[in-house]
């Protein structure tokens, strides 16, 4: 079974969308194997987004992820990485299709409610980082 790391970011928590978001993964048949709330430190946020270091939106991204409570989850299932990313929708709100989490609820740059690992190597690295 494949595992992936999913975060409900501070805007998702603040807007009261935790239940709505988790429901969508569960309705698909994916399993929540671990779940916790975290107030990310700058160090954790920088490690999580290390591939974006140097990009013009990096500072805003770190500020965003450290601005409030985050729900971190390990989600498991067959092809969990791809399935979760399909449920989340495209990164940019204007590209995300209706029926996806971002398509239905995101309407602001950067503030896209959720994060999910993009491949097996990222999943392994991110699960270690958030669930030491
Ligand atoms: P996420 O899927 O967590 O991966 C990287 C995050 O950076 C992304 O969601 C967005 O929140 C943010 N992001 C990606 N591209 C841009 C961009 N061009 N401008 C601002 N923020 C971005």
UniProtKB/TrEMBL annotation:
Q: Which Pfam families match?
A: NDK
UniProt superkingdom = Bacteria
Tell me which SUPFAM superfamilies the record gives.
Answer: Nucleoside diphosphate kinase, NDK
Q: How does this polypeptide assemble, per the annotation?
A: Homotetramer.
Q: Does the keyword Amino-acid biosynthesis apply?
A: no
The EC number of this protein is 2.7.4.6
- Obligatory cofactor(s): Mg(2+)
Q: What does this protein do?
A: Major role in the synthesis of nucleoside triphosphates other than ATP. The ATP gamma phosphate is transferred to the NDP beta phosphate via a ping-pong mechanism, using a phosphorylated active-site intermediate.
In terms of CDD domains, this protein maps to: NDPk_I (cd04413)
Q: What species is given as this protein's source? A: Caloramator proteoclasticus DSM 10124
Q: Which Gene3D superfamilies match?
A: Nucleoside diphosphate kinase-like domain (3.30.70.141)
- Family recorded in the similarity comment: Belongs to the NDK family.
Which GO molecular function annotation, any one, does this entry have?
A: ATP binding
Q: Which NCBIfam families match?
A: PRK00668.1
- Keyword line: ATP-binding, Cytoplasm, Kinase, Magnesium, Metal-binding, Nucleotide metabolism, Nucleotide-binding, Phosphoprotein, Transferase
High-level lineage: Bacteria, Bacillati, Bacillota, Clostridia, Eubacteriales
- Name the chemical reaction catalysed here: a 2'-deoxyribonucleoside 5'-diphosphate + ATP = a 2'-deoxyribonucleoside 5'-triphosphate + ADP; a ribonucleoside 5'-diphosphate + ATP = a ribonucleoside 5'-triphosphate + ADP
Recorded GO CC terms: cytoplasm
Gene that this polypeptide is encoded by: ndk
Record-given protein name: Nucleoside diphosphate kinase
InterPro entries, A to Z = NDK-like_dom, NDK-like_dom_sf, Nucleoside_diP_kinase
GO terms in the biological process aspect are:
CTP biosynthetic process; GTP biosynthetic process; UTP biosynthetic process
Nucleoside diphosphate kinase-like domain residues are 1-132
């Amino acid at each position: 079974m494949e595992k992936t790391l999913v975060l409900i970011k501070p805007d998702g928590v603040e807007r009261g969308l935790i239940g709505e978001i988790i429901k969508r993964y569960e309705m698909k048949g994916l399993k929540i194997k671990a779940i916790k709330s975290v107030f990310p430190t700058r160090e954790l946020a920088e490690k999580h987004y290390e591939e974006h270091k140097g990009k013009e939106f990096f500072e805003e991204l770190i500020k965003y992820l450290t601005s409030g409570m985050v729900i971190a989850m390990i989600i498991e299932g067959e092809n969990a990485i791809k399935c979760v990313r399909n449920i989340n929708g495209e990164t940019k709100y204007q590209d995300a299709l209706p029926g996806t989490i971002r398509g239905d609820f995101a309407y602001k740059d950067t503030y896209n409610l959720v994060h999910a690992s993009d491949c097996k190597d990222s999943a392994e690295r991110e699960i270690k980082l958030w669930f030491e």
